[in-house]
Amino acid sequence: MSIADSPSRPRHWPLTYIFPTSSGLGGRWTTVIYGLFLAGVALWILNYLFLATARHQGDEDNYLFASKVLANWLLQRPPVPTLAKVIDAVVDNGWFMPGMLLVTVPAFIADPLLSAANHIWLWRLNSALLSFAVWIWTLRRVDLLLGQTFTIALLICPTLILGWILFTSTIFGEVVGGLLIAVAFAQAYRLALILLHQDRVDLATILRFELLLLAVVYVRGNAIVLVFAIHVFLAVMVLLADRREFVLRNLSNSLAGVLVFAALLAPWSLLVSSKLGGPVLTTSTLTLSLGITFGGANQICFGPCPGDNTWREAVKFSREYGRAHQISELEAQKLMTDYALRNVTYTSYMKRVAHNFRSFLSTPTAFFDRFASGVKSITDKDVLAALSDLVKYASLAVYVPVILLLLCANVWIVTPRNLEMQVMSLCVKLFTLCIFVQPFLHPSHARYWPLFAPLMGLSAAFLFNLAFARRLGPAGVFPDLAAASVRPRVGTFLLVVQALYSAMFILMAFQICCFLIA
Question: What residue intervals traverse the membrane (predicted)?
Answer without folding.
Answer: 32-51, 95-114, 120-137, 144-165, 171-189, 224-241, 253-271, 393-414, 426-442, 448-469, 490-510
